[in-house]
Amino acid sequence: MRINTLLVSFLLIFASATASLAQKKSIDLPNDNAMAQIKPGPGRDAVKNNCAICHSTDYIVRQPRMDRNKWKAEVEKMRAVFGAPVSAADAKEIVDYLVKNYGSEVKEKSGKK
């Protein structure tokens, strides 16, 4: 009987010591790279919700400027080859966003005169 009491006491002490050692952990991730921020505008949410779940926005921002056909082919490649679960409606919205913000016709603003 005494062994059972000692064993139970030991287990209670061990459990309480273990619980007091357990700490809630949190991880602070660094902010996104400022150069990789995608531009605001219609379709941005579709890009963030569909494209940025698999790869960094760097892959979008740093792409060569492409025309509509090339952006459409790129989005379709992500769907067909890489299996990106992007609906046809979202794909159209993504292509429209990419053409408007990162298309070959977009003139980048710079501080140079």
Q: Outline of this structure?
A:
The chain has about 110 residues and is mostly helical. It has helices spanning about 1-20, 45-50, 60, 70-80, 90-100.
CATH architecture of the domain at 34-102: Orthogonal Bundle
CATH class identity of the domain at 34-102: Mainly Alpha
Which fold name fills CATH's third level, the topology of the domain at 34-102?
Cytochrome Bc1 Complex, Chain D, domain 2
Class by alpha and beta content = mainly alpha
Low-confidence stretches: none
User: Largest beta sheet, briefly?
Assistant: none
Approximate shape: elongated
Distance between the terminal alpha carbons, to the nearest Å? 91 Å
Helicity level? 40-55%
* Rg calculated over all Cα atoms: 26 Å
CATH superfamily grouping of the domain at 34-102: Cytochrome c-like domain
Order of helices and strands: HHHHH
Which range does the strand content fall in?
Answer: under 5%
Counted by DSSP, the helix tally is 5
Say how many strands there are: 0
Mean pLDDT, all residues: 85
Tell me what you see in this structure:
This protein has a domain at about 35-100: Orthogonal Bundle (Cytochrome Bc1 Complex, Chain D, domain 2), CATH 1.10.760. It contains five helices and no strands. The chain is elongated and about 85 Å long. Helix 2 (about 45-50) packs across helix 5 and helix 4 packs antiparallel against helix 5. The model has no long low-confidence stretch (mean pLDDT about 85). It is mostly helical.
